[in-house]
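Q&A FORM
Asked by: J.P.
Topic: structure of TIGR04219 family outer membrane beta-barrel protein

PROVIDED:
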Amino acid sequence: MKKITLALCAALASGAASADTILGFDASAGVWMPSYTGNIGVDDFNTDEFSLAEDNVTFLQAALEHPIPLVPNIMVAHSGVETDGSAMLERDVTFGDETFSANTEVSANMDLTHTDATLYYEILDNWVNLDLGLTARQYDGALDVRQVCPEDAACVAVLQEENIELSGVLPMVYGMARFDLPFTGWSIIAQGNGTGYNGDTLTDVTAKVRWDFMPVADFAIEAGYRMMSLDVKELDDFQSDIEIKGPYLGLNLHL
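REPLIED BY: S.T.
REPLY: Here is the structure written out as tokens.
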């Protein structure tokens, strides 16, 4: 991990001279349509059994680039990732510190909403564009699991519940590569964040194509695929090995 950090810092320092010669603003807004696979909880409960809803995720991103040497550019992004479902347990399953018994129905709400603040440098800035930087990801979510009251029972309170808050800041490495196809208005883009520590890994990668359909107004449409994976055991007691992936569609403005 130290070698990766040192290599990144060297690349950032060498790329400081490639900053934009004029002030630039880039913003994207889109919809991510993910599905969920993998396991959550202490006993690696399969998320397929919850039949988690595949609700659309709203995604926002804005970046400000400037010509000041050695001062990094800044980008902020926000994704509201939330889903829910229910399952009839066939065995005892532990979420956090609470064990839910077999033959009981439980509901789950999983919230992985997060906001990114990224400082980065432009290493290359022509028909091939390369950005490298560091991201601080702030999570504001939770995993809430509760036992569902049977239909033939008169429940006046929650029978059993476990709420695992997911908060705090996670440092990540950031990278973006864009290839502009000359004279076409089309671009191919790969963008992502990643981190790893003590066996835990988290990656978030988007691959997309962008078409500048309104060059006079600097508007573009983009479509692609985003995949986020969380293989964690110590992230605020949120234990999971899941993948969240699906197509992405958005609009871009570049000034």
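FOLLOW-UP: The chain is about 5% helix and 65% strand.
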